[in-house]
UniProtKB/TrEMBL annotation:
<comment type="function">
    <text>Involved in chromosome partition. Localize to both poles of the predivisional cell following completion of DNA replication.</text>
</comment>
<feature type="domain" description="AAA">
    <location>
        <begin position="11"/>
        <end position="189"/>
    </location>
</feature>
<dbReference type="Pfam" id="PF13614">
    <property type="entry name" value="AAA_31"/>
</dbReference>
<dbReference type="InterPro" id="IPR027417">
    <property type="entry name" value="P-loop_NTPase"/>
</dbReference>
<dbReference type="InterPro" id="IPR025669">
    <property type="entry name" value="AAA_dom"/>
</dbReference>
<protein>
    <recommendedName>
        <fullName>Chromosome partitioning protein ParA</fullName>
    </recommendedName>
</protein>
<dbReference type="InterPro" id="IPR050678">
    <property type="entry name" value="DNA_Partitioning_ATPase"/>
</dbReference>
């Protein structure tokens, strides 16, 4: 384990944007892999019923007996829910479609917004000695995403470099403000990362300059380029860092991981 490990426990980051297809899952998988390359121990919590992060890391459906659903709604031992992956130092709590009913099942639960918060703070978690926990959120601002934001120290927002990209951000920021008022007053914005960026495309440049002028330092210096190797990697059940280690996508996620580690938000 690295000497930079956090004595106060893992830093928990929700990867969120209510838009689908903006790069949440891709960023969760590859940022996790890049942090592991830098010597960190990382847990990826798949909080999307689509289970794309689980598939992308090679966890087959029949290996998903214990999932985020059980972590939230049943009293299952943490050791059963946290699985190793092919990558040393990278762990996952997988998800299945079962999680799609959680939103409704949780409504009558008094602690409904705090279930993930409490689950990730069980003392059994200490033995894993994670440095980071990344939560791959569903494409919605539902109770699952609220659970992630209540559990997290910060929110990392992937922003696809396309038209209307900034439009959904005000709603996301509103949810973050509500979460601060309703149980996680210290929730930070870790940063906004531009994804699927194409330098030759004026629109990408426009989105970048709008984002930087509106959000300033909140926007990571690193931008993630549109890169076919990034989109191919999940079908080989690996992060792009393993699939094509010298690709532009892999380099970008390495650079994002370094920026994140140097980000001095708690
Ligand atoms: P979300 O989790 O927000 O729904 P995904 O991470 O699943 O988004 O990405 C949506 C699609 O875009 C996927 O098919 C993914 O492979 C592709 N994609 C994401 N990032 C890149 C990139 N940098 N270059 C090329 N394709 C990408
Ligand atoms: Mg996703």
């Amino acid at each position: 384990m690295s000497d930079l490990s956090r004595p106060e426990g893992p830093k928990i980051i929700a990867v969120a944007n209510q838009k689908g297809g903006v790069g949440k899952t891709t960023t969760s998988i590859n940022l996790a892999a890049a942090l592991v390359e830098l010597g960190k121990r990382v847990l990826l919590v798949d909080l999307d019923p689509q289970g794309n992060a689980s598939t992308g890391l090679g966890v087959e459906n029949d290996e998903r007996d214990y999932t985020t659903y059980e972590l939230l709604l049943e009293d299952v031992d943490l050791d059963e829910v946290v699985q190793g992956t092919d990558i040393d130092g990278l762990f996952i709590v997988p998800a299945t479609v079962d999680l799609s009913s959680a939103d409704i099942e949780l409504i009558s639960n008094e602690k409904r917004s705090f279930l993930l918060h409490d689950a990730l703070r069980q003392t059994a978690m200490d033995a894993f000695a994670f440095d980071y926990i990344l939560i791959d959120c569903p494409p919605s601002l539902n109770l699952l995403t609220v659970n992630a934001m209540i559990a997290a120290h910060s929110v990392l927002v992937p922003l696809q470099s396309e038209f209307f990209a900034l439009e959904g951000l005000s709603q996301l920021m509103l949810t973050i403000r509500e979460v601060r008022q309703s149980g996680n007053k210290d929730l930070r914005i870790e940063g906004v990362v531009l994804t699927m960026y194409d330098r030759r495309n004026n629109l990408s440049q426009q989105v970048e300059s709008d984002a930087r002028s509106n959000l300033g330092d909140l926007v990571f210096q690193t931008v993630i380029p549109r890169n076919v190797r990034v989109s191919e990697a999940p079908s080989f059940a690996m992060p792009v860092l393993s699939y094509d280690t010298t690709s532009k996508g892999a380099s970008a996620y390495r650079s994002l991981a370094k920026e994140l580690i140097n980000n001095n938000t708690i």
